[in-house]
Amino acid sequence: MAKKSKKYIEAAKLVDRSVAYSVEEAIELVKKTNFAKFDATVEVAFRLGVDPKKADQQIRGAVVLPHGTGKTQRVLVFAKGEKAKEAEAAGADFVGDADYINKIQQGWFEFDVIVATPDMMGEVGKLGRVLGPKGLMPNPKTGTVTFDVTKAVNEIKAGKVEYRVDRQSNIHVPIGKVSFENSKLVENFATIYDTMLKVKPAAAKGTYIKNLAVTSTMGPGVKVDPSTFAIKN
Length: 233
Hints:
With 233 residues, the protein is α/β, with parallel strands linked by helices. 33% of the residues lie in helices and 20% in strands. The protein has helices at 6-12, 23-32, 81-90, 98-105, 121-124, 128-131, 149-158, 182-198, 226-232; strands at residues 41-48, 60-64, 75-78, 94-96, 113-116, 160-164, 170-177, 209-216, 222-223. The chain has a 4-stranded antiparallel β-sheet with strand order 7-1-8-9, with helices on one face. The chain has a 3-stranded parallel β-sheet with strand order 4-3-5, with helices on both faces. A two-stranded antiparallel sheet has the order 2-6. Helix 2 (23-32) packs across helix 8 (182-198) and helix 3 (81-90) packs parallel to helix 7 (149-158). The protein starts with 5 loop residues before the first helix and ends with a helix. This is Large ribosomal subunit protein uL1. GO terms for molecular function: rRNA binding; structural constituent of ribosome; tRNA binding. Belongs to the universal ribosomal protein uL1 family. Keywords: Repressor, Ribonucleoprotein, Ribosomal protein, RNA-binding, rRNA-binding, Translation regulation, tRNA-binding. It comes from Peribacillus faecalis.
């Protein structure tokens, strides 16, 4: 395990690990314990009572955060003809077909999200080996395989985030930057929290949200008590 830095150890002293805080208190603590010299990302982490090995308990999707993430996503759209023109008009950073497939095969990755029209997926599928491990493969569940390229590009630019349960039943989602006003981080948190409740698989048994925490890029995790939050919403 990596040795913790002096700054991290000092920051961690401000957090009582035996306490689950209200979301407002947790976000305040995340800001206090942030010692990064850059505008760190604030992230929420869920530990869920699901078995991701079972098809009916896999959780994946996307949601638009009301205040975005503080990062402008570079969007690549695979489309032809009118749909390509539509993507350009919507503000996609890169639009094309075979030319961009070749570029990616040669190691080009100057983008953050890929959108593809369904008729392009046969070609885009050839990039599965390189896009899959990076989590960049377009997927209908996250709204990135669609003929409505205008909506897809607009949502991504407005602050759409993807979420996906990992093998350890965890989901990590960015909810903004430490420079955000606390109220905006709380509202973004509320959006992703409500989304997690809505996508609870019917097959999931027992406690659904087992652990909930917020953290900054380099700072310690701060536990959140979901019950204090649920009462307010």
